[in-house]
Specification:
5-stranded antiparallel β-sheet; elongated
Length: 455
């Protein structure tokens, strides 16, 4: 295999690739002419390139058609088109002519012994004419030289309007039919066609990325609809308490969530959580917590036990995604004005006296779920009648203002204290109205969730 041109067989041999007999029978007849390739054939190659690059057929089909025409016009027995895969940092085969595509392995762009990799890196043409006694084979001195007749390796380049030129891939042409080498005219023609291929490949990539983004957007919207449906409405608690809650997501699918649970003995379970991420991963964690909390809240004896069971349910998923989540869960006895809670690292949990406006922070009783060092927690009981429970997430406290600064938890608590004789819905509306004015209506950088409950 001509590794000087970047081709390498899977078994390491350098034997010539399998040829397709029928096309080259036709080529040999034409190539017996003593003169160079006629201008008409070159025009045919250019027009074929334009037809292929502008058609709606697949990129691979177009690339194969172009490469076949190029190889025919410049009388190359074998040809390959390699395209850069930026994620893997390799040149991968897209089209081949006169050889078995299965015999061509991807080439690392940093390979010092590959001419294709060198052409790609240096963005310049490299060729070899064995009939020239002064010509030097650019292959590796370690024995990986090309032993064929002649070869031409041309970079496929693309430059966006006003942008810098960047390499897209490489065209390799070898085994020229006849005794002569590739001419200066061949180099010019292939370079021009390579530029057209570069534009076609880049346009195809842009279309593919746009289509992928559209599909992702539709999937995210569907996931968002599902996530919103998982969040319970305040009316699930009936008229037992005055409760209002709102969740505004930064992305189509977010990491904030809450849950409201009607439990035995007239108790109400109130939960708020914040996953340390966004997107599908965070949505999956959120859905798992919602399901697990509904299962364990009824049977567990304490809020701390509920959190422990939820964490056990999420152990594998949290480890795999390297996420963790803050989670507050409280058991509210509305008639007694009592709340028993467990707090896994959720910073923004408060009780506000409806009589005095005095604020009490409900401190964390354990680390976030999934964080190292999570151990046994302690359960705290707070008893105070005529109290407002105020829970919110980082996206509210850390919201950046239009003129700088952060919204801060004091601003949220100020609204709760000032409007403590109003309904929970009125307090919630005031917080979000002030938040919108503070940020200038800018889209949120993080999810924002606020829950107000009057006991």
């Amino acid at each position: 295999m001509p590794t000087a041109c970047g081709w390498r067989s899977r078994n390491g041999s350098r034997g010539k690739g399998r040829r397709s007999r029928r096309p080259w029978r036709r080529s040999s007849a034409r190539c017996s002419r003593p003169s160079a390739t006629p201008p008409r054939s070159r025009r045919s190659c250019r027009s074929a390139t334009k037809r292929s690059t502008s058609s709606t057929r697949s990129a691979r089909s177009a690339a194969q058609r172009i490469l076949q025409e190029v190889a025919f016009v410049v009388r190359a027995g074998r040809a390959t088109l390699l395209v850069h895969d930026p994620e893997r940092r390799v040149l991968s085969l897209v089209a081949a002519q006169g050889m078995d595509p299965k015999a061509v392995d991807p080439i690392e762009v940093d390979d010092p012994s590959s001419v294709s990799a060198r052409v790609f890196r240096e963005m310049r043409i490299i060729g070899y004419d064995p009939t020239d006694p002064h010509a030097q084979n650019p292959g590796s001195p370690a024995g990986r030289t090309y032993k064929g007749k002649a070869f031409l390796s041309v970079p496929v380049l693309y430059a966006a309007p006003g942008g810098a030129v960047k390499p897209i891939g490489v065209i390799n042409l070898t085994d020229r039919l006849g005794e002569d080498a590739f001419t200066a005219g061949d180099r010019k023609l292939v370079a021009a066609i390579a530029n057209q291929i570069g534009a076609a490949i880049e346009n195809a990539n842009l279309v593919a990325r746009d289509q992928s983004q559209q599909r992702l957007h539709r999937e995210m919207e569907l996931a968002r609809d599902l996530q919103v449906k998982l969040l319970p409405l305040p009316r699930v608690v009936g008229e037992r308490v005055d409760l209002a809650v709102r969740c505004r997501q930064a992305e189509s699918v977010g990491g904030d969530f809450y849950n409201l649970l009607n439990l035995r003995e007239d108790r109400l379970g109130v939960m708020i959580g914040d996953v340390t991420s966004h997107g599908f991963g965070a949505a999956l964690i959120m859905a798992l917590v919602m399901a697990a909390s509904g299962i364990h809240a009824e049977s567990a004896e304490t809020p701390g036990e509920v959190l422990e069971r939820i964490e056990r349910s999420l152990t594998e998923e949290l480890a795999r995604t390297e996420m963790f989540l803050t989670l507050f869960y409280g058991l509210v006895a509305p008639d007694a004005g009592r709340i028993v809670y467990a707090n896994a690292g959720h910073a923004h949990a408060f009780l506000v006296s409806a009589r005095t406006g005095e604020t009490t922070r409900l401190e964390a009783t354990r680390p976030p779920l999934g964080a190292p060092g999570a151990g046994r927690d302690r359960v705290v009981t707070c008893e105070q009648k005529e109290t407002l429970l105020c829970l919110f997430t980082d996206g509210v406290a850390e919201a950046e203002g239009e003129r700088g600064g952060r919204f801060g938890e004091e601003r949220v608590l100020g609204h709760v204290a000032r409007l403590r004789d109003r309904s929970a819905r009125e307090i919630l509306d005031a917080v979000f109205a002030d938040l919108a004015a503070f940020t200038g209506g800018a889209p949120p950088a993080d999810d924002r969730t606020v829950l107000i409950l009057r006991m």
